[in-house]
Design goal:
Layout lengths: L1 E6 L3 H12 L5 E4 L4 E3 L3 H6 L5 E6 L4 H6 L7
Antiparallel strand pairs: 1-4, 2-3, 2-4
């Protein structure tokens, strides 16, 4: 999965997203423009700012992961 756009609206959604990402063995990053960060880091994701569009970049592929983050996807 490459280039999935998401938006996290509050700290609870950030925590839920980080918990989901942390379950997977492959690297998952978020891009908020020119900055890339580890999607498994609560503080890192939170510092990107709430209500911003972020791009999920995976170094692996897993259908279960894609389905589990669908609720955060930007239409």
């Amino acid at each position: 999965m490459k280039g999935t756009r998401i938006r996290l609206m509050n700290p609870a959604e950030v925590q839920e997203f980080v918990n989901i990402a942390s379950k997977y063995d492959f690297d998952i990053d978020l891009s908020g423009g020119t900055c890339y960060l580890d999607a498994k880091s609560f503080i890192g994701v939170l510092t990107q700012g709430l209500k911003r569009e972020l791009t999920v970049i995976c170094r692996g592929e897993d259908e279960a992961f894609r389905r589990s983050i669908q609720k955060f996807a930007v239409a």
